[in-house]
# Entry
Amino acid sequence: MSNSVIPYGKQSISQEDIDAVVEVLQSDYLTQGPKVKEFEEAFAKYVGAKYAVAVANGTAALHLNSLALGVKEGDKVITSPITFAASANCIRYCGGEVVFADIDPETYLLDIVKVRSLLEEDKDKNIKGIIPVDFAGRSVDLEAFRELADEFNCWIIEDACHAPGAFFKNNKREKVKAGSGVYADLAIFSFHPVKHIAAGEGGMITTNDEKLYTAISELRTHGITRDTNKYKNAASLAVGDDLSDADDYPGWYMEMQALGYNYRLSDINCALGLSQLKRAEAGLQRRREIAAVYRKAFKDIDQLTDRNYEAGQENNGHGYHLYVIEVEDRLGLYHFLREHNVFCQIHYVPTHLMPYYQERGYKKGQYPAAEQYYGRCLSLPMFPTLTEEEQESVIRLIIEYYQTKS
# Structure
């Protein structure tokens, strides 16, 4: 094996990507220009949603969604402890309280049975929403969550950062893409370099709700609107001169009507994201091919559990942002692989065990499925440019490690 490092995730930048960014750098707009709208429209079409809003990152997307849905002090929102902390933190940004529900140990997704129990115990009806996470690229059954949410008058934000292009099948056996807005009120994506689509940084919000789309579009830019139909001040005040009979608003005028944020995404990022989006399906197919090789290689290793879907099949909706296995002696294997330049990762330290959330009352032992998963999980190298030779090296090292232990 060469001395080159094999990371768990890695961006792929083509000459077309470089050319797209250079074109923007040589244009009149580096930000707030036409590439933003172009990227939004292309991404909405890709996931099958009516609307998309490009934002600074996935965390900004979650925060804006929470604001648009009116999360406030005293409100409670359910999410998974096996996710990046932002899935929970967005509720805290708005003064709300996070309620964790344990995961299904077979899928690593939010356990709908546990969510129902929490909702039934909420006699004061303080739980306002649910944030299911499409963990590792496996889509949550949002049809079932929608039925549950409607029963208890809750909204849904789908955290689809791991799952562009992924899908699940509803009761009619129809493919429902992550972020399509068929069942969730809002969905969010990330364009961090290790994700399917790399824009350097960046995020996207998708929805089929026009009111939410409009609210988020304004909150993204300081809560400012330039829609004359929404202006609250009189035209005379907007002119600024002592012209009480002014009928028209001047071209420079705008109104900040809500406390928003600067969560814009630049044209530079959007150009890169748009270029990458053109290769999204090819990248997704390659991820599924890599998953099929892993699954075949690991099926007879007793010390390893592989709970990923059957890979490579036509109806396989998994997006394979991650290829997670559960192993015995995880720490030993982790260090052994690193000694051989294979840099795996752990996704994630359960959010409820972070000191911040422990200070808010959460304790070890509250979510046994999540904690058991955490003690065994390991994310293997998974990215479209992973070569056959590199993947064979990863597999060989894992087999070698457990052969020496037997």
Summary: The chain is about 35% helix and 15% strand.
